[in-house]
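User: Thanks for the earlier help. One more: Rod shape-determining protein. Can you show the sequence and predicted structure together?

Assistant: Of course, both are below.
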Amino acid sequence: MDKEMKSFSKSVSRIGIDMGSSQTRIFSEGQLLLEEKTVVAVDNTNDDILGFGTDAIIHYHTEPQRVRLEWPVKNGAMIDYYYTRGILSYFLKKGLKHSLSRPEIVMSIPSGLSSVARHALIDATMHAGAAKVYLVSSSAAAIFGQGISLGGSDVILSVVMGRDITDCGLFSCGGIVAQEQIAFGGNSINEEIQAYVRDSLKIVIGEEEAEVIKQSMVSIADPNAVKVFTIHGRRLVDGGAVAVEINTTALYQVIQTALMPVLESIERIIRRATPDMAEDLLRNGLLLSGGAAQLSGLNHWLSAQLGIPVVITKHSDLAVVIGCYRSFDKYRQFPDLIESGDKYYGGK
């Protein structure tokens, strides 16, 4: 975090948590305390929990026949209360191992999360060891993470692209002009790459290989920047292992087509802006965050399609969790953006 980074106090009482479908991050006092997979290892024979996060991955690779992996968060929402409470409890103890107090927590959520899902998440977090819980949308948190004020009259458009969800938000005067979430993220692009390789080359590749292909793109905004590389998979016809060369020429269209739901979501949000907001949008542009925002050339491609500047946030994969931490003390100033869990939990 450059100058932001500093020593971690043993009495941490406030933390930010970004609990995504793939990764969970915990941040406090200028330091990333934890970054691990949001995954649980479960014994197939008796359904006992064997481990969480990195420990779960180790269990799985050690005994793949005995162990299965469960991912308790999907599309930004908790799908298993028991596993989520367990993984939060484990991560809090691991990340705050020197702390003697129950922490206050600001958690990021997709903007479209239902009140029932919010209540369940807050309940799980309180039972995992929190003293108090606040919720903030990912798109708003990313703005706070950049130290940008939302109290003025400027219009700010924020888009966070994660593993399987994209959260868009348009904000002004400390309030929400428009918000939208869609079930699309970096994993969606991987799936389209897998489908293209299967249909055109008759080769089956895994998600990790698709991720390598995606990261090997020179720039999705420049189809003339061609790159040739080798991919590894299995022939569709007989399952035999194969390594073939592929160039990026055809992949540009595949990825750009895959990204259309994101583009259309942003366009819907922009159409909610009033004519008076147009000048701000042209000047401030779009703030792009999240792990998937690092796709080479994505900002330039979106800018060309939307006609406004697109700026990738500093530490784009950490912008949300940093913003969660920076959201403390802003609840009274921005009650429309930061929700107190007291309304669900009776203030206990």
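User: Great, one quick takeaway?

Assistant: The first strand starts at residue 14 and ends at 19.
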